[in-house]
Structures are given as C-alpha cells and as structure tokens.
Amino acid sequence: MRMRVPAVPARDTGRTPGNEGAASDNALGAYLRHCRARLDPSSAGLPAVAQGRRVTGLRREEISFLTGVSADYYSRLEQGRERNPSVRVVEALSRALQLDSDARARLFRLSGINPSLGPEGMSARVHPALLRLLEDSSSAVAYALSPCFDILAVNQHARALLSPFGGESNLVRALFTHPKARAFFTEWPLAAAASVHTLRRNAFQCPDDIDIPDLAAEMSARSADFSSLWESGADGDLGRAYGAIVHPDVGRMELTYTIFSRHATPGQRLLVGAPSSGSRSAQSLTYLTAMSAPAEGNPPA
Prior knowledge:
Blueprint: H1 27-37, H2 60-67, H3 71-79, H4 87-96, H5 101-110, H6 128-136, E1 141-145, E2 151-154, H7 156-161, H8 171-177, H9 181-184, H10 188-205, H11 211-222, H12 224-231, E3 244-247, E4 251-254, E5 256-261, E6 269-274, H13 280-292
Antiparallel strand pairs: 1-2, 1-6, 3-4, 5-6
Helix pairs in contact: 4-5, 11-12
C-alpha cells in the first residue's frame, strides 16, 4: 500500500541551494526518518527477521540495500550533512519507501528538486522529432530512452508490452533487478550486455549526465551481473533491440526494432518494434493492447 503524506506547496524552480523551509533545520532528514519508520522488512520485500527487533521501521542499512545508495550517504541525508541528493537518488528513495505521488513530490521538494524532473515530466525531455515518430508509430511498440535508460515516453503498445514491470521507469533496473526480466527477455544475456555497454558509451558521450554514474553505482551494489559487465570496461552502441520476448499474458512475441536518435540529444534513443504483418505476434500485440486499455470513462493508470 502506498503511503499518503500531506504535500507541501510546490516550487516553480528546479534545484535550489540549501534546505526547504525555515521552520526546520533538517526537514529532509526528519521526513526520511518518518517515512522509514512506517515500513517494516516484510512490507518492503526483505527477508523475515527474528522476533524482538528493537528498531521501529526499516534500518538505514536496509534502505541502503533497497536503493543501492551507500549506508554512509543515506546517514548523511538523515543527519543533514548532505542536503542535495540527485534526482536518481530521490527516485530510488521514493521506491524503497513506497511513497505515493503526493509523498514522492514532497520528498522531491524537500531535496530542493522540482518534482516535474521525475517520471511525470519525462516526456518533455524527449527530442520533438523522436516524440513525433513515437506518436506516429500507431501499429508498433515505441518508447523513448534517456542516456541512462530511463523510459521517457511510451505509446499504447509499449505500455502494454512493458506492463509486467509495473511502475519501473528504468530499463536497466528492470533488466537486472526485476524478478520477471529473465523470463521476459528470451535473449537476456545479450540484452543485458548490450544495455550495459551502451550505458558505458553514453557515460563518455554525456559526461555531464549525473544520472548515469548514480545508476551505475546503484546497480553495481544491487546486481553482481551488472557489476561484472560494468567493470569489464567494454562499451558499444545499442545496435539492435532484442525483439523476442515472452509476455505472461500472450506468450512469445517477435518484434523487429528500428532505433532512432538525434545529434541534438546524444544518448537519447527511440526504439520502434514492429511485428510482421498478419503474424501471431501482431495478433498478440493487438489483443494485449486492447486488454490493457483503460475502460471507457476511466483515466489511464
């Protein structure tokens, strides 16, 4: 269950120096402690612990494990010795603390970040030409990726195709940490290697993109497979997307992908995957999209 916490007034700016509000010297740390105390290991998906646990809520070390953020860095956030976490860190904390949209927005604001820099504002970051291609891909799966593999925008087919990953907004994180990833991607080892090698290439092409090293640090802490591929030093480009997948609702589907990019937005890509006309995959995609579409009069999830 997502926790609801009253939101504070939104800011109009992006990141601002210092802490929010004059009433508290460490509002961010207090809020993190409050959210941490409301969870227990079982609700966070952690192994059961022995009875007699003295800590109320999650330990700092458990938040570190869930997010990939070092325990020392998280402690500094709670203690007010670090007050400007990145968007990537705040997103990871929002997921680990199971915050709903209002609570997540509050955490962003307390961190000095405009909440629109998170997933709700991602489509605004897509190059206009790529966004037009996405919107025109009415018979194919289409989704835009940032240099760190955040899923910035999807069409209806892509939303249905990626539904097994729930609210996960980063393709690398889905590949390496989601329990359904290895069954979903039939060529998981190739997909995983290509994604990490492309991420390394993007790190060189986009040296000012702080989300890439943040993601790499998080994933290296959470996945031995990712850490091994990242430390290998190999880099490359996402030459092709791995189009054979097994969706839990419709079975195997095969898509032929075309990858688009623009020099104005290095590292950003649009992936468009089309099934063969009249194939079982085309029928499955049509059925899957119709099945996942919101009922008439209901907003999309």
